[in-house]
Design a protein that fits this description.
This protein has 154 residues and is mostly beta strands. It contains one helix and twelve strands; from the N terminus they run αββββββββββββ. The protein has one domain: Thiol:disulfide interchange protein DsbD, N-terminal domain (Immunoglobulin-like, Sandwich), CATH 2.60.40.1250. Strand 7 and strand 8 form a beta hairpin. The relative contact order is 0.28.
């Protein structure tokens, strides 16, 4: 039971670190699993109203894709990164619909926790590159570094 209290307190502290950037995009992510298991870590992106992120596969070659990079730990490996399905949204500056993410969207990171991994918190360095746009213009691309919390349970 002690580990459950530690997990709850750790998650609360970890989630408290999620702060919106200048444009208001907040990033939150954590997961928990047992040794030998695969876990899905959801990276939730909260995109402010009136803004959109270019999709992982943008509609035009000069637009910057949303890309997540995650560094593994010795006993937590990254198996796959799954991007959400993009929405088609008309943006006046492009004079056409573009593949974008809006509102709250999620990137799923599939992790594998090694057999024999000791219980406790792992913090995986991550980097999200993205480009925010309104209907009329895009900001310069941004890169945000943050930590993904992975709790290895007993």
């Amino acid at each position: 039971m002690r580990w459950l209290l530690g997990l709850a307190l750790g998650v609360a502290a970890f989630l408290a670190q999620a702060q919106p950037g200048e444009e208001g995009v907040a990033i939150r992510a954590w997961a928990a699993g047992r040794p030998g298991s695969a876990v899905a870590l959801v990276v939730a992106l909260e995109i402010p109203e009136g803004w959109a992120l270019q999709a992982h596969q943008p509609s035009l070659p000069h637009l910057i894709p949303t890309v997540l990079a995650v560094e593994p730990a010795a006993d937590v490996q990254v198996e796959e990164i799954r991007y959400p399905e993009a929405q088609e949204k008309y943006l006046a500056f492009a004079k056409r619909a573009l593949a974008v993410y809006t509102g709250t969207t999620a990137i799923v990171v599939v992790l594998r926790i090694a057999e024999g991994a000791a219980p406790g918190l792992r913090l995986l360095p991550a980097r999200l590159r993205f480009q925010l746009c309104t209907a009329t213009y895009c900001l310069l691309p941004e890169e945000r570094e943050f930590l993904l919390g992975v709790w290895v349970l007993p």
